[in-house]
Amino acid sequence: MDQMIEESQPMLMKRNIDEMYHNSLDWQSEVSLWKQELKFFQKMLDTYTVKCLSVAQKQRLSHLQNLLIYYNGELLDQFKQQTRRHVKYLGHRMEEDHSLDFDEYQQRFGGLSNHLSAFATEYRRYKKDFFALMGELIDQSAEQKSSSETADIG
User: What pTM does this model have?
Assistant: First the structure.
């Protein structure tokens, strides 16, 4: 029985490495998507900055802009590098059929998944706030346009 457990451990390790590798590819893809979204969000912010009427809206917009700069200019680039190194590391382990030294792995990449998950949660809040403000500004802009057209007709 012990021999069967010992023989199955390399297969479990191989499966875990494969699973971690594919999860890492998913994270890489997610980081790329976040960067694309932030480019779009920046265009929206640039377009609707002039539509802010209230001080509260300007403060919210400024806060969203600052977060966007931090996310896009620093944090996501860091995640991109970390996930790229992670995928490369796991890929080498798979190609060379090396076992994974979990102590070394934890030392190199232990918190990456936690950091990415925490950011994903924070980013969802960012998007909720972003869309709420953009909705207000779009509605406000439509109301101003409607008022302007009504004044032109009258």
Answer: 0.77
